[in-house]
Amino acid sequence: GESVGLHLPTLSVQEGDNSIINCAYSNSASDYFIWYKQESGKGPQFIIDIRSNMDKRQGQRVTVLLNKTVKHLSLQIAATQPGDSAVYFCAEADQTGANNLFFGTGTRLTVIP
Amino acid sequence: DTEVTQTPKHLVMGMTNKKSLKCEQHMGHRAMYWYKQKAKKPPELMFVYSYEKLSINESVPSRFSPECPNSSLLNLHLHALQPEDSALYLCASSRKWGENEKLFFGSGTQLSVL
């Protein structure tokens, strides 16, 4: 199966700073990527998605960047807040046409007040 | 209603017990999923239902038996589980399967097998 991995398992940032969470993927044929946020005791919550025909997509305080050349995905969170503390997963959709998501290892983001 | 509701939130069972996990959504989604998540690990796909039919079984042991009674409900029947099956079981839904659709997850059932 595909390999979706994250560069850093943990990330600590000061409140108000910007956060960048990185993700590498190995299947060059993948064309759909999602970032999920998972807080303790909860299920993954959709943050933002991007298709391979785009290289950037913005949401509220979040931006996803896709670099297909190096198979790299990043999530940028602007003005990080304590409520952003969670585990962040990137997920890659299976390219067989099915909507089978493969999740990366996850990065734990801790926001320091 | 944009929620996926799972019950129970917590479940403790012995290896000889039979129990069921339940999942419900009222978003009109026609694809529903079961994922298993071990502590500090990413979710792993178990089953996919599309239009109430089982479409994907990711080589899950038969002690896990999924059921989709209708388009809003998804069950996971458990029997003769092992301690290593202890995990967070997540249900998810999407508008349809076979397209790049985002999944909506429930909060999960934390299962402990003694």
Question: Describe it for me?
Answer:
The complex is a heterodimer of chains A (113) and B (114). Chain A is mainly beta. Chain A has no helices and 11 strands. In chain A, strands 2, 4, 5, 9, 10 and 11 form a 6-stranded mixed β-sheet that branches. In chain A, strands 1-3-8-7-6 form a 5-stranded antiparallel β-sheet, with no helix packed on it. The model of chain A has no long low-confidence stretch (mean pLDDT 88). Chain B has strands at residues 4-7, 10-13, 18-25, 31-37, 44-50, 53-57, 64-70, 73-79, 87-94, 104-105, 109-113. In chain B, the strands form 2 sheets. In chain B, strands 2, 4, 5, 6, 9, 10 and 11 form a 7-stranded mixed β-sheet that branches. The chains are: A mainly beta (113), B mainly beta (114). Chains A and B meet through strand 4, strand 5 and strand 10 of A and strand 5, strand 9 and strand 10 of B.
